[in-house]
Each structure stands twice: as C-alpha cells, then as structure tokens.
Amino acid sequence: MTATEKAGTRVGAFPQDRTCPYEPPAGYREVAGAGPISRVALYDGREVWAISGHAEARRLLADPRLSTDRRNPAFPATTEAIGRVRTRFTPPLVGVDDPVHKVQRGMLISSFTHRRISDLRPRIRETAERVLGSLIATGAPADLVTAFAQPLPSMVMCHLLGVPYEDHDYFEERTTRMLSGENPAIAMGELRTYLLDLAGPNRHRLNEGLFGDLVSAPEGEVGREDLVDLTIVILGAGFETTASMLSLGIFTLLDNPERLAELRADPALWPAAAEELLRYLAITDGITRVATEDIEVAGRTIGKDDGIIFLTSVLNRHDEVRDRPDVLDWHRPTRNHVAFGFGAHQCLGQNLARAILEIALQSLFERLPDLRLATAAAEIPFKPGAAVQGLVQLPVTW
Fold this sequence. Notes:
By secondary structure, the chain is an alpha+beta fold. The chain is 48% helix and 9% strand. The protein has a single domain (3-397), classed as CATH 1.10.630.10. The protein has a five-stranded mixed sheet. The protein has a three-stranded antiparallel sheet with strand order 4-10-9. The termini are far apart.
C-alpha cells in the first residue's frame, strides 16, 4: 500500500509560487481545507506531511521527536538545489538537534535578548537614517531592495558582530552576493576567509560584538572554524529574512494605502504593525522537519523518517486563531503567530528582526511621505515559492 493510499488523496504539491506576493498560494489553502494534516508531493515525487492546523503545528514544533538534522538522509529536501547543498554542508544551529543545538544556542542567546536589542535600537535608527540620507541624495526613482532593504540589515549585522567599520563595505558586499547575487559560493568562501582571519591573526581589529565575544571565549566544544560557520549562518538568516521582510512590508503598505494612512495618523501603531506584517506575510513559508519516531496527530500517524512541512502562510491565516485573518489589522494582538517558528528552534533573532522592521518602516515613511510605486503593482517581480518570500525589485519614486 502506498503512502497516498494510506493517507487519502494527495491534494497538492510543495513548494508553490504565490500569485500575489503577500498572499498564500491558492494550492496551500486547498491543502488546509483538507484538514490540519495532509499529504503533499515534493519536486522529486516524495510525499511528505503538510501541517496546516495551528494547534497541531505548535504541538509538533515543540515535540522533540521532530528533528532538524540535515545529516539525516530522510530529512526532506524541498528543491534539488537544497538536496545537493545538504550533502556538502550541515548548517550549525538551524541544522542540528540537541544537545549540539542547545550548546550553540547558549553561546549566542545573550546577544539577542530583549534588553540587548533595546540597547541597539538607537544604532538601528541611526543606521536607517544614514541609509535613507544616501537614498534621498541619489534621488528618485530608486529600487528599494538594493538601496534600502538590503543595506540596512547588513549594516546592523556588521555592527552586531563587531566587524571593523573600515571593512564594512567589503563585508556588506560579500554578504549581499552570498545571499542574493551571482556565484554565492565564491562570496561565502571569501567571507569565511575574512572571518577566519579576524578570528586569528587579526583578532585585535575586532570591535566589541558577538563575533569578538565568540572567538575570545576559551576553547570549548566549538572550534574556531565551527564558530565562523555559525557566524555565517547567523548572518545569512538575519540578513536574507530581514531584507525580504522589509521589501515585502513596504510593498504591502503601499498596496494597502488605507492601512498605511492609519499608521501615518498614529505612529504609536508601528510596533503592532510590524508584528501584524510578520504574521500576514509569513516569508519563511514551509518549515521542514523529519520524524525520529512514530507520532499520532489528528487521527493520522506520522511515521519514523517521514518528512514534515509546516505551511506557515496558511497557519498564520487560521480562522480558529483570529477573526478576519486575511485582513491587516493593527488593533489586535498577533503574537501567537508562527512566523518565527515555535519550540526549541524558534528564531533566535526575532527581537532584532522586530526592531529593524519597525524602525526601518517608520523612518522610511516619515522621511518620504510621498513615497509610491514607480510601476504597476502587478509588474513588480517577486521570489518563487521555494525561496524566502520577498521582492526581486521594488521600484519607487517620491
């Protein structure tokens, strides 16, 4: 008996492209309509479980019987490219389980506390104003992806890590190429060589920051090369997701002028707006796991070595969690979303992401009150469903 015969009719595939950059794919809504747990097919025909029930998702994401270990040959690869990369590199932190994950997370957590990020907010605001000053000086029209959404989080991460300011152009350019440019493997290799140099003979050049704290700590369970790999994972996760959230958040506000008008009228709503946008946009759609034991969920049995996909975009639009889930609303609590995941692997940098998003959006729309799209919304290119959701370009004028 096949997996499909055991579980019922397959109702969709993963990943799927969005037809609107801030709406879930229609096919994911069909999956959700079939129940809280269904089957979908990956690019290679492998069938995995798709979780679209909010309560079921939170329960499973907190279950230690679900693994994020990419070394497990049963771990689901959602694209052919991901499958190839997994055989060559296992990312620390996001690609390992306890006890290794607990050790790595414990080394980093003090740099991402609410208090630490609160102390960083003036620097984030100063950086946003500096990037905006350059944008305004260059003049309209502009692409806000390359002129604002990418450089701002890169500069903030540069400061957080303690990279020497005189190297920030080199550091930011390699970071951008690694995540969104051509030949990312070359850029990653250059960045790794640079960080290894800072961790060794040029350690005296490091400013106060996370990377300096890591390499200055006594030798323990994590060696210097592993610390560099860990830093690159933090950098990649923090840069790509925040840049994507910024570009897509700006677009969503410009495409929903009545909601933007509320924020202009009452700036105290910006923190709530940032949280609601995180829920609404769900840019990390498709959290992946593999089961290490049989698990009973909603009348179904997830078998050992079964792959699992959490459909974040529909999980955050669940009508059992909030009224009118498809409507942007700054006037309701939204902290029970799963945009940052849930459980032991919940995003370590969520406080930083919130702060950057809130400050960047408020600063942008206050400095440029006449900001508007420079082309029709339907013509603006956005990323495919297999990627972190966001825009390829965001042409604007003012």
